[in-house]
């Protein structure tokens, strides 16, 4: 049974992430969406909130699960008995960082392959950072994120606006 890990911060989970996941679902028998806590990135949602939002979008994929992890990705992948890591590449600008990360992961764990998957071109300019910025200023993000994520972002930034002087 082929198993891959789809890691990320997913703050928030976007339609681009979902598109990469759906492409990976055609290639692997089992997928684990691995949510990195990554406090250094200053996520707006807790890892548990991100997990809940992602799980709500996995219904069409019974062979996909989601969980939270800490530490080195390759160590998590080995513990999960995964064969590969899936990474999404939106644009050439993503490639250098992802390539270096893949080489380091290969150095640390030669038996875990990294595969790059390109999302549909309509998501090539979508990033979690941009989505948060648009949502923060009240822009329409419904094309970029699942409905439950759009609702959560709307509530989050409405609360922040109410608490600002």
Helix and strand arrangement:
Elements: E1 3-8, H1 15-25, E2 30-36, H2 47-55, E3 64-69, H3 73-79, E4 84-88, H4 92-108, E5 113-117, H5 128-136, H6 147-163
Parallel strand pairs: 1-2, 1-4, 2-3, 4-5
Give a written overview of the molecule:
The chain is α/β, with parallel strands linked by helices. The protein has one domain (3-125): Rossmann fold, CATH 3.40.50. It has helices spanning 15-25, 47-55, 73-79, 92-108, 128-136, 147-163; strands at residues 3-8, 30-36, 64-69, 84-88, 113-117. A five-stranded parallel β-sheet has the order 3-2-1-4-5. Helix 1 (15-25) links the parallel strand 1 and strand 2 (30-36). The longest helix is centred in the middle third of the chain and has 17 residues, at 92-108.
Tags for this model:
five-stranded parallel beta sheet; globular; 165 residues; Rossmann fold; 18% strand; alpha/beta
Task: State the helical fraction.
Answer: 40-55%
Derived from helix and strand composition plus strand pairing, the structural class reads alpha/beta
CATH class: Alpha Beta
C-alpha geometry: globular
Q: What's the pLDDT, averaged over the residues?
A: 92
- Second rung of CATH, namely the architecture: 3-Layer(aba) Sandwich
What order do the SSEs take from the amino end to the carboxyl end, as H and E?
EHEHEHEHEHH
- The strand order across the widest sheet is 3-2-1-4-5
Low-pLDDT parts are none
- The count of helical stretches stands at 6
**Number of strand segments:** 5
Task: Quote the beta fraction.
Answer: 15-25%
User: Largest sheet, described in full?
Assistant: 5 strands, parallel
CATH homologous superfamily caption = HUPs
């Amino acid at each position: 049974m082929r198993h891959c890990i789809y890691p990320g911060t997913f703050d928030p989970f976007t339609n681009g992430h979902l598109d990469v996941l759906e492409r990976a679902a055609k290639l692997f028998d089992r997928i684990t969406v691995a949510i990195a806590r990554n406090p250094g990135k200053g996520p707006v949602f807790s890892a548990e909130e991100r997990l809940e939002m992602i799980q709500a979008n996995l219904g069409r994929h019974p062979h996909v699960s989601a969980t939270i992890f800490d530490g080195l990705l390759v160590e998590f992948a080995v513990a999960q008995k995964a064969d590969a890591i899936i990474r999404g590449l939106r644009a050439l600008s993503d490639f250098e960082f992802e390539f270096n990360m893949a080489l380091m992961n290969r150095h640390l764990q030669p038996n875990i392959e990294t595969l790059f998957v390109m999302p549909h071109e309509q998501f090539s300019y979508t990033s979690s950072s941009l989505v948060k910025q648009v949502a923060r200023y009240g822009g329409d993000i419904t094309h970029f994120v699942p409905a439950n994520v759009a609702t959560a972002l709307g509530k989050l930034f409405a609360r922040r606006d109410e608490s600002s002087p």
